[in-house]
Amino acid sequence: MTTHAVDLSSLDALAPIYKASGDPLRLEILRVLRRDTFGVLELSHLFDMRQSGMSHHLKVMHKAGLLEPQREGNAIFYRRPLSLDSDKLADQTIRQVFETVDQVPLPSHLEEKIEAIRTQRANQSQVFFSRHAEQFREQQELIAAFDLYAEPVAELIRKRADKHPWQTALEIGPGEGAFLPTLAGLCDHVVALDNSRDMLAKATRTCIDERLNNVDLIEGDTDNLLARGDAFDLVVANMVLHHVPSPADIFLDAAALMNGSGCFVVSDLCSHDQDWAKDNCGDLWLGFEPEELTAWAADAGLTAGEQLFIGLRNGFQVQVREFWKTTTPG
């Protein structure tokens, strides 16, 4: 009797999933949300439909557990669920739906529209840093003082260097270059990559002042380094992810740019609700759930290692994470 009741309950949980996913448009939406997070207006634009119609589809999918909302200030974005229980039949079914639709490539017209949205987000970020380059440090420290996250990151990298010497390192988005002396002291060769010419000029000044002769500064993004075939033992992104249009892609690119036993070290904000950070600090995203970073890393073939969470007096929390291309060293 009990077994029969469990079976019925399981079937009741499966029905909404199959119903919600039994529509080609909704399957396309799931494909688009594989790594990205999009708002209702962005999804409406991607699929050339009215916002009311898109909202209906998203509501049905959310109710079935295929999507979950993510609040970014006053806007609602949608993503795939961060955690699925492998012991629950409903979650197993959702995972199978994802795995199946992910086998189908996105049509070129959707790829182009997604790239246009990412470009728009990137331009928004670049414009901010161009306008506020002179006040960069002051505005960043409205959220977190540099030393509060830089020192734990440096300590983690130094600790790993005892058993895992770093020869080459990449810092994505070095800002004013405040972390470059640390990397230059630990590695034979360092590359600093930034798409903001104004910020790169400040990082150049830091290298001159600190006499960092083993640092190359490059204007551009990770695509430039991938095209060159560069490879690094260590990749670092300090407080960068919340400024980039597609944070999940940074994990993919970092993995592609790392040597066989490379490590990706990230410091960034945990998810928060302080919307003023977008206008005052140029943030595109209001932090991230730790599960998001773990999921993006796994999708890129990286294994999560040590993690540290730092609570700040102003209500923000910073997470310092490491992700390895191979098994985490002891």
From TrEMBL:
<dbReference type="InterPro" id="IPR011991">
    <property type="entry name" value="ArsR-like_HTH"/>
</dbReference>
<dbReference type="InterPro" id="IPR036390">
    <property type="entry name" value="WH_DNA-bd_sf"/>
</dbReference>
<dbReference type="GO" id="GO:0003700">
    <property type="term" value="F:DNA-binding transcription factor activity"/>
</dbReference>
<feature type="domain" description="HTH arsR-type">
    <location>
        <begin position="6"/>
        <end position="101"/>
    </location>
</feature>
<dbReference type="InterPro" id="IPR029063">
    <property type="entry name" value="SAM-dependent_MTases_sf"/>
</dbReference>
<keyword id="KW-0808">Transferase</keyword>
<dbReference type="GO" id="GO:0008757">
    <property type="term" value="F:S-adenosylmethionine-dependent methyltransferase activity"/>
</dbReference>
<dbReference type="Pfam" id="PF12840">
    <property type="entry name" value="HTH_20"/>
</dbReference>
<dbReference type="InterPro" id="IPR036388">
    <property type="entry name" value="WH-like_DNA-bd_sf"/>
</dbReference>
<protein>
    <submittedName>
        <fullName>Methyltransferase type 11 domain-containing protein</fullName>
    </submittedName>
</protein>
<dbReference type="InterPro" id="IPR001845">
    <property type="entry name" value="HTH_ArsR_DNA-bd_dom"/>
</dbReference>
<dbReference type="GO" id="GO:0032259">
    <property type="term" value="P:methylation"/>
</dbReference>
<keyword id="KW-0489">Methyltransferase</keyword>
<dbReference type="InterPro" id="IPR013216">
    <property type="entry name" value="Methyltransf_11"/>
</dbReference>
<dbReference type="Pfam" id="PF08241">
    <property type="entry name" value="Methyltransf_11"/>
</dbReference>
